[in-house]
Amino acid sequence: MPLEGEYEPSAAQWVRDQVAEYEASKGQRANTLRDTGLPVIIVTTRGNKTGKIRKFALMRVEHEGQYALVASMGGAPKHPAWYFNLKADPTAVMIQDGPEPFDVEVREVTGDEKAEWWARAVAAYPPYADYQARTTRQIPVFVATRRA
């Protein structure tokens, strides 16, 4: 069931534009990270403070129908805002990977499971390794599983 409520687009114009174009084209356009040619998905969450709907693109890291959501923020010293949205409500999440969004539930992974997903993430988007090298925080990884 789609998340309902007021949508608050990203403060970053390029993020707003990418989400709008991806959704309008049902994933046919704006489906890569800028000019890299690497695929992205659109993630929808509910803001943990405002309750508003938030949307953003993340690198597509899919394995056997599950997705890794990597909270890298480009190696910044703090977690992205959406990290806290997922922690606050891991069931208020949708992914769009193609024409239609679908509901997922997320969980943060640790230990060996995180190492497996991290390797998949770096294989899909090698700069993740650089991002981890430039920050002292451990970059969190969530695994998103489609809900029935």
Short characterization:
This protein is an alpha+beta fold. 28% of the residues lie in helices and 26% in strands. The longest helix has 14 residues, at 111-124.
Helix-strand string: HEEEEHEEHHE
Give me the number of helical elements. Answer: 4
Corresponding CATH architecture: Roll
Specify the biggest β-sheet.
7 strands, antiparallel
Stretches where pLDDT is under 50 for at least 5 consecutive residues are: none
Which class in CATH terms? Mainly Beta
Question: What is the strand tally?
Answer: 7
As laid out across the biggest beta sheet, the strand order is 2-1-5-6-7-4-3
**Envelope shape:** globular
Percent helix range:
25-40%
Strand content: 25-35%
Report on this model:
The chain has helices at residues 13-24, 81-88, 111-124, 127-133; strands at 40-46, 53-59, 62-63, 66-70, 93-96, 101-108, 141-146. It contains 4 helices and 7 strands. A 7-stranded antiparallel sheet has the order 2-1-5-6-7-4-3, with helices on both faces. It has one domain: Electron Transport, Fmn-binding Protein, Chain A (Pnp Oxidase, Chain A, Roll), CATH 2.30.110. It is of the alpha+beta class and 148 residues long.
